[in-house]
Design brief:
The complex is a heterodimer of chains A (302) and B (264). Chain A has 302 residues and is α/β, with parallel strands linked by helices. Chain A is built from nine helices and nine strands. Classes of the chains: A alpha/beta (302), B mainly alpha (264). At the A-B interface, loops of A face helix 8 and helix 9 of B.
Amino acid sequence: MRAIPGVASFDSDCDTAPAQRVAGARSNGAAARVATTPAVTPALTLAGLGKSYGTRCGKRSVLDDLSLSIARGSFVAIVGRSGCGKSTLLRLVAGLETPTTGTLSLDDVAGRKPDTRIMYQEARLLPWKTVLQNVMLGMPASARDEARAVLDEVGLLSRANDWPAQLSGGQRQRVALARALVHRPQLLLLDEPLGALDALTRIEMHALIERLWKTSGFTALIVTHDVQEAVALGDRILLLEEGRVALDQAVELERPRVRGSTRFAELEDSVLSRLLKRPHVATLADPARQPAWIGLKRRTIG
Amino acid sequence: MMLVQSWKALARAVASWIVPAAVVVAWQCAANTGLLPARVLPGPLAVLHAAWSLVQSGEMWANVRISAWRAIAGFFVGGGIGLLLGLLTGLSKIADIALDSTIQMVRNVPALAMIPLVILWFGIDESAKLFLVALGVFFPVYVNTYHGIRSVDAGLVEMAKSYGVRGFALYRDVILPGALPSILVGVRFALGLTWVMLIVAETVSAQAGIGYMTMNARDFLQTDVVVVGILLYAALGKLADLFARWLERTLLRWHPAYQSGAQA
């Protein structure tokens, strides 16, 4: 496997077939953004990470011997079917749960624990606090101007004094995003934050998250079951399967990404094929040889 | 726009009074025609007259004051203890194991069944009435506080902790406001029960208060004064309910059920 600057090689003892595919997929070099990042210490390193839960019928392993590292400032998308352990991985990184085996090291540039914020599928706003008070949660009262500035960035300054119940689902997620960003996190974890939103709002949110990520320079880790979302946002797509990394795919599309472009669709289909374990249609560019069901495929798995 | 809305609100308020007004009119007609003998139920005008003479003699104010004091004191003692114990068992696992099942067992004893025992313990003075009211109020407040704290959204607590909200701030900003809707349901129940307990306690034995006034009037066959007493209890109960509603509207302004106007 080729070593790529900024992206440490992944090491997972899964079967060889996906590993070969990964090597092939990466043969064109690293993603544009990753390549320009100086090779400093990674933001996040997992070594032999495992997590299992005790159930009535013995132990159930959710994550199994996971080793990988995430480059500082990169945007990594983790996809997989429901129950593949992707949300557990995020909760481990967030420190909400402790690993059963292995180690997880989070380091900022100075070697301290970086400020990590997590965004959930539900906005989880406190309904008894106004939008502005929600953004200021855990901040001193002096951070008021800062909170207002971030609220302005997500386009909701005019709703600062409204109750969360008065906002739409997309607006609530924007408030949740502002609440995470006001802390200037170095690592932002997104746990299917857009899963409950409609398609149009989701595309707007993609653009917003991408813009804020570019300007703020944090490392972002998004868990999603939507392959299109992963291709739209990620520098790198990790496909989790039965607690292991089954595919580590760099995304080399230029930002902002055009959803209709051939390369976007090809990449999306390649990841989706791997996810569904169906033969990848390599000749997608030739419409004459494209099976009819390609056009009918569901983009969302899980 | 505002004018139309306020007109509509006014019309709604007036409409809800139509049926009670009709009942009063029918009642007066029945009393006038002799269909309803004054011994059974005097007409509304006779009741008003009796009420007015009670106001003039100062009897009414003295009795209302003492009954209201009993209700308020009993409510705050019973509700306060219920709230504190509910918070304790809701927040602390040890207190929950130690106390909750005991309290749930005692809850099965109807408070009014305690009356003979209460009279033996406290006699028939103020402490007996205070005890009965407090006992009746305690359980709804306790149960709803406990339940409210137990059902606070765990996702919100996890989120708040991950944003560094800990200790006292976590209780003040997340757990208590989350439990508040349920606590207020308990308060509303308790306010209703306050009057039930008080009426029974005052009817059984009292030397002052609205209950004393009505029982005294019964001995002299003053049906009009009895009706005044009943209506006084109703009015005070309504006042307590208005207070509960005002409390909910003020404290739960954020709740979707209490929001009017601007929706997204």
